[in-house]
Request: fold
Amino acid sequence: MPNEKNLIPMDQRSKTEAREMGRSGGIASGVSRRRKKSLREAADLYMSLPPVDKRRWNRLSKDGIAPEDIDNQMAMIAGLTDSAIKGDARAAKVIIDILGDCGKDQEQSRENNLLEVIMEFGEIDISDLPEVQ
Reply:
């Protein structure tokens, strides 16, 4: 690795130098988090606006979507769905991922219910089972 001689481990630095580096890293982290939050808020605002293109709005309305639910986010989902139906594997994967994120809580609750049923029977030694979060 080039410049390996320039790297000094934190345990070989003075306490004040390590503290100052940690402080500057924390400040940079805060700036980055605020920038990302601002970007998320801007994207959320834009996605909640109605589509500018009237043809797109009319198409979504014709597809049976209620007028108050038509926004850029719905247009994006409709476009992904249309692409997936036409055979675009990447669009299908995105939709599956979106739907999968919604179903994670249900899957975890099913796992917990299974563990509760197993524990009710009492016939199984649960000491060797991995811990469930």
About this structure: The chain has four helices and no strands.
